[in-house]
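The protein record minuted underneath.
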Amino acid sequence: MNRLCDSASLPEGTSRGFTLGKVLLFAVRRHRQVHVYLNRCPHQQVALEWQPDAFLDDSGSLIRCARHGALFLIESGECVAGPCSGESLQSVPCEERDGVVWVSLDIRRDS
């Protein structure tokens, strides 16, 4: 497991981007649960945000690709609107313990 961040640095209803090695990730906290995904839209394999840490739509209830307008469910990463509808973000296994968010980067690092 790799340390992602202190739990306190990801308050409820927020998102935040990270780089671990060469892997771009982002995390969202919703309903006290942390969800982590690769920072890559399945439509054209580009980063989701235009501004740092801006991964959510205006309502804060969906993940938004700023480049294409695709919308994704926070809990599953499934695209529910936009050019990649039906596809999903790639989730990254995570756990929160002792005030730290940890991720498992047992994913393809070249992807």
Notes: The chain has a mean pLDDT of 93. The CA atoms of residues 78 and 88 lie 4 Å apart.
